Known about the structure:
210 residues
Amino acid sequence: xxxxxxxxxxxxxxxxAIMHAxxxxxxxxxxxxxxxxxxxxxxxxxxxxxxxxxxxxxxxLAAFLEWVLNEYTDRIDVSNIEDPQDRLxxxxxxxLLGLDDDETSGPPFDRGRAFNTALLEMRGQAAxxxxxxxxxxxxxxxxxxxxxxxxxxxxxxxxFREADAEQVATLVLAAxxxxxxxxxxxxxxxxxxxxxEAIEELLVKELLEA
Amino acid sequence: xxxxxxxxxxxxxxxxAIMHAxxxxxxxxxxxxxxxxxxxxxxxxxxxxxxxxxxxxxxxLAAFLEWVLNEYTDRIDVSNIEDPQDRLxxxxxxxLLGLDDDETSGPPFDRGRAFNTALLEMRGQAAxxxxxxxxxxxxxxxxxxxxxxxxxxxxxxxxFREADAEQVATLVLAAxxxxxxxxxxxxxxxxxxxxxEAIEELLVKELLEA
DNA sequence: GTCTATAAGAAGATAGAC
DNA sequence: GTCTATCTTCTTATAGAC
Lengths: 210, 210
């Protein structure tokens, strides 16, 4: 509706291609070694194109972060799972971004480990770059509300005991972020899975009525 | 004993000064914007001095990471606290690196928030830089053993219930790393404190015999 | 051991042709 | 909208004097 009806390549197509190229370059080289040139190399265009669509490298990366976080949360759909415990665990699995299984999320998100690494690097930048910080904050709030709603749903259904849903969600999210961070920054590669199991044993099962 | 008895400035003095200068520069500018020049600016010497003592920037930063992580763990001393629960909570407080209180650790570690930010950035590099990864892994193993020992001590004393100490430690550490990461990467600055309280409420109190 | 001076390369960004 | 060519700046690292 809001697009031209001509066959001219729309600006959105190139921008979408830039996002995909950025994703690939980021996973391959990491955030620290990411350059405009390396992004351009990923989709057969020159750096001038990138500067035409985005004023600065930082603008491009902020747009990328918004795009990629939205893509991910859009894919999370556990609304069809009835049982609150199952839904909570499924949600946790989705949020591990493929770090705890062999299957990945399918293109373009088929690089769980590399992508997690890049995302951790970008989080490190969030303290000093407000646009990044905004995206991470929005994402956190969204995911946290999903967890809180699921826990409260379980309490209302009588499946879970009375509990401070906000506090449980805080702990679950922190543990999962820490698990992902340990997974990519230590030699022990099973950290994410270990944390996933600890959450299930020590927090989720604890929510069940005795 | 192993030092010269002359009044010549020892090599170790300059190296120590370099570590302190690196700490300051890292906190002020962040890892991403850290340059050899900025480190040199922090202690009134030139970049040539840094290259004289360390071959490359990466060598210098690997040495810095080893130094700073050892400095921190050396300062952790909760061995005088008898009660296992108190000792566990004190340990957790130490590991929060000053993020949950107004008091800081004293020079040179007087920049809890900025230092945490820099450490998170460096962790992001650990996936691709083995020297970093080694340091973080060694630090993790050390701290984890401290937590496990405290929990097992509590179980033996009959203060804590029977529990999988390794699993609890895994969850506590992951949650704290996540809490520190959220604290510096979101607009909610109280994340570390919130996680600290959630750990106490949902994990530590749970360890107490009913 | 520390200095000055500089080499050598890479990066982000822009100008102007098409 | 995309290209080629180039500018400017910054960065690591080295050479050689002191």
